[in-house]
Design brief:
The protein is built from eleven helices and eleven strands. The termini are far apart. The protein is an alpha/beta fold. It folds into two domains: 33-116, Leucine Dehydrogenase, chain A, domain 1 (Rossmann fold, 3-Layer(aba) Sandwich), CATH 3.40.50; 142-275, Rossmann fold (3-Layer(aba) Sandwich). It is 42% helix and 16% strand. The strands form three sheets. Strands 1-11-8-7-5-6 form a six-stranded parallel sheet. Strands 3-2-4 form a three-stranded parallel sheet, sandwiched between helices. Strands 9-10 form a two-stranded antiparallel sheet. The chain has helices at residues 9-31, 46-61, 77-89, 108-114, 126-133, 142-155, 173-182, 197-201, 241-245, 257-261, 274-293; strands spanning 5-6, 36-42, 65-71, 95-98, 162-166, 186-190, 206-209, 227-230, 234-237, 249-252, 266-267. Bound molecules: guanine. Guanine binds next to strand 4 and helix 6.
């Protein structure tokens, strides 16, 4: 049986980060402009701490100005909004990212809406979501942007392909559906209420899994030869009872990778696929925001 070609997010993300670093060097040398990213982390969520550290390290490595603000889980909504306001006004900062999820009691939507849309490198502000839906220049959420780069790299022109996105989140499902539509795909957004989900998935030349349910998508949901993009990052206990008893966990995607690889034409691994592209795209978005704010790009 033939095996799917692995879509190598690690190599593609490394190349994108190198391109961003080269562009940062040119902006500094030719325009005295150093793109700056501020990340706000509220509370102690362990996964968020790992992601935020990685964002800081990679932005420094690309030659960008990088600051991380850590606030306690019991910070008030008013104090968090004041922090966002301060970053909106800071001329050294071109990208503001508030790591999600926020601890209970904080109003995530209100915090995102408080970010200056021009600095919303997460692309989550309604202005950016609306501009994306209308095909206008916007800041595009990082994970969907990363998925599109992987797909274009793998398949080239996406025009006319049938794409099925499983999941309708604001962070991934909805924006990636918009991007696939812009790329002239025929797009279906499927979700937990979709009838006969396996049959819907089997129609896809491009299947994007963004549901957050470990290994939900099985081999017989996949059209032979399809490109499968697995956005899921789920932490599950090891099957080995000794490791499981020791509390050890591993990362798996939303796709049953091993069996799916025997049917798909192309597939992203977890880890090593989409996840690495997200940070690279955050850096790219920060450079885009800096250039737009400086009037160097529309
Ligand atoms: N938490 C998990 N993914 C993301 C992301 O892309 N942006 C933010 N702000 N928080 C996240």
């Amino acid at each position: 049986m033939s095996q799917a070609q692995i879509i190598d997010g690690k190599t593609i993300a490394e190349r994108l980060r190198a391109e961003v670093a080269a562009e940062v060097a040119i902006l500094k040398a030719e325009h005295g402009l150093q793109p700056g990213l501020a990340v706000v982390l509220v509370g102690e969520d362990p996964a968020s701490q790992v992601y935020v550290r990685s964002k800081g390290e990679h932005s420094n490595a690309a030659g960008m100005h990088s600051v991380t603000h850590r606030l306690p889980a019991d910070v008030s909504q008013a104090d968090l909004l004041a922090m966002v306001d301060q970053l909106n006004r800071d001329p050294a900062i071109h990208g503001v990212l508030v790591q999600l999820p926020l601890p209970k009691g904080l109003d995530e939507k209100a915090v995102i809406e408080a970010i200056n849309p021009a600095k919303d490198v997460d692309g989550l502000h309604v202005v950016n979501a609306g501009r994306l839906a209308q095909g206008l220049p916007s800041l595009v959420p990082c994970t969907p942007l990363g998925c599109m780069i992987l797909l274009r790299e793998t398949l080239g022109d996406l025009s006319g392909k049938r794409a099925v996105v499983v999941g309708r989140s604001v962070l991934v499902g909805k924006p990636i559906a918009q991007l696939l539509l812009q790329a002239d795909c025929t797009v279906t957004i499927a979700h937990s209420r979709t009838q006969d989900l396996p049959a819907v998935c089997r129609e896809a030349d491009i299947l994007v899994a963004a549901v957050g349910r470990p290994q939900m998508i099985k081999a017989d949901w996949i059209k032979p030869g399809a490109a499968v993009i697995d956005v899921g990052i789920n932490r599950v206990p090891f099957r080995d009872p000794v490791k499981a008893a020791a509390g050890k966990t591993k990362l798996v995607g939303d796709v049953a990778y091993k069996e799916a690889s025997a049917v798909a034409g192309y597939i992203t691994p977890v880890p090593g696929g989409v996840g690495l592209m997200t940070v690279a795209c955050l850096l790219k978005n920060t450079v885009t925001a800096a250039k737009r704010i400086a009037g160097l790009e529309t």
